Amino acid sequence: MEMEKQENGNRTIHIEKYYGSLRGMMKKYEKSARSGCFRGNTLEEFTSWQRELRGRLGELVGLPRMEQCEPEAEVVECVRVEEGICREKVLLQVEPEVWMPVYILIPEKEPEGVFLALPGHMGAGKYSVAGCREIPAVRDSIERFHYDYGLQLARRGYVALCPDNRGFGERRDEALQGDSEEQFLNSTCFQLAHMAEPLGQTVIGMCTWDAMRLIDYVCQRGQWDTGNLGCVGFSGGGMQALWLAALDERVKRTVVSGYLYGYRDSLLALNGNCSCNYVPGLWQLADMCDIGSLIAPRQFIVQSCREDHLNGERGLENVYEQTDVIRRAYALCCRESLFTHDIREGGHCFHPEVLDLLLH
Ligand SMILES: [Zn+2]
């Protein structure tokens, strides 16, 4: 529309050839990417590589710049959402002056275990993951992406921790604090990245930190068995699940859906992705396969959809290159059976059958 107006109004000139930066950046990527990948052969070398990369990634995303505080957790609401499932709303202080609302879905029967169900974009944070279909915009989002995996886990007998991650739901920053559907469903990742990066922090680092504090909380609460704690996330929630499981070994089983591919095709060539994906210096150090390899030998399922545009122009090829590296890491640990690549048809969408694969 804007283009048309400009062209008709003769207020600009036509540019025949552009001198953009992508080709040069691609070349630079080829030259400098993945300096921190695993180059050893033995399990011992692999374990020490994992320890070192965890430290370097934590530094890169800004974990040392995060501030400890008392959680001052408070249960502010408790409702029965359906037969056999109660929902608490808990407020948790994750950093001084930074609060995280969390819906905790609790089966009334003795729970089988605990999962973090981490939300992705366009679902209003915890509301879609916790299955709040009574909100029409959320219902549409659940129908489109099958976003209600928190509720699905609770129906299977697990406590599901469904937080608002930073910039989502009740944690939206000033730019999107309003009730329109667009504001409600969207997140302020862009603004958060601008606030964080000059302070040596990143959105990924903040989300990972917050999820770690949620694990602290549920462990301290001591009410449920956290020995086989898991996390599940789709899309931006997959990003959080990947990073959390990579950096926090308390997570014993992980599903990353719609978020496992090579950075070059998916985040450099597709450079319009959400700001939360971008960490200064990351690609020089690691690709997603390296981060995923930090989850070995714990149970890890990657779910990919064949037509997901976020895989980049080479489609699943850009995924297989990453999962091959992760599979080799599991083989080195003699735990090949604990890594699964679940491939589904269609576009960017969560397929809940993966939960049955996970829990069988
Ligand atoms: Zn984002």
Describe the 3D structure.
The chain has 360 residues and is α/β, with parallel strands linked by helices. The protein has one domain (67-359): Alpha/Beta hydrolase fold, catalytic domain (Rossmann fold), CATH 3.40.50. It contains 15 helices and nine strands. It has a nine-stranded mixed β-sheet with strand order 1-2-3-5-4-6-7-8-9, with helices on both faces. β8, α14 (317-332) and β9 (339-344) form a beta-alpha-beta unit. α9 crosses α10 (236-247). The longest helix has 19 residues, at 203-221. The chain is globular and about 65 Å long.
CATH architecture: 3-Layer(aba) Sandwich
User: What string gives the helices and strands in order?
Assistant: HHHEEEEHHHEHHHEHEHHHEHEH
Broad shape: globular
Instruction: Indicate the CATH topology.
Output: Rossmann fold
Beta percentage is 15-25%
Q: Which consecutive residue ranges, at least 5 long each, have pLDDT under 50? A: none
Instruction: Please tell me how large the radius of gyration is.
Output: 21 Å
CATH superfamily: Alpha/Beta hydrolase fold, catalytic domain
CATH class: Alpha Beta
Write out the strand line-up for the largest beta sheet, numbering strands in chain order.
1-2-3-5-4-6-7-8-9
Bound molecules: zinc ion
What is the helix content? 25-40%
Question: How would you briefly describe this protein structure?
Answer:
With 360 residues, the protein is α/β, with parallel strands linked by helices. Helix content is 39%, strand content 18%. Residues 121, 187, 189, 236, 274, 276 line the site of zinc ion.
